[in-house]
Amino acid sequence: xxxxxxxxxxxxxxxxYRQRAGEYDVTAYDDVAAARGRIARLVAQMQPTGxxxxxxxxxxxxxxxxxxxxxxxxxxxxxxxxxxIARDRVRSDNVMFEVADVFSWASEERLDVIFFSAWxxxxxxxxxxxxxxxxxxxxxxxxxxxxxxxxxxxxAKESYVAxxxxxxxxELQDGTTYRIVKNFVDPEELERRLRDLGWACTIRRDDDxxxxxxxxxxxx
Length: 220
Known about the structure:
The chain is of the alpha/beta class.
């Protein structure tokens, strides 16, 4: 069963990440130092060169790695507290941060790479097509979409609400709870859905719980 994902719920999702910003790194990763090494390795494999847009940049761990390869990085997130941490962490001349809603952020620039980590799983099923339609005009000819997310095998770690199979309830360290969207990646299903929308992609699994994807829009 699936509820309608409303703007109110998506606003709650932003509120959750605003409140979680200060504890995000230590709660998202068992070992932050080890995570940095893994992030650096994955980004090196992806080779995000040229002009890069990072959507939902969070606290900047991935931004830091992207900046080593890209000519420029525009890092966007709706959580102002997370962006403040990222700005303090990443002091590179080729990085610019913006506080903005990922669904509505717009620019005239055509980018070589659009990157996001653990973001696609927060896109509601009802907005999946709309989201990918937004990406296509932002890419330069030959541009790529690169992203990391969690494999569907990790689904059991979340507490899904009884009336919906894409909304989970999460608790912060202070005991407050929020509802957010969480759609884990099923590689075969994702490849099919993207193909139907005119995207070609390569999906690889990294260790047990992450998958990383390189996608490009097929000519229309």
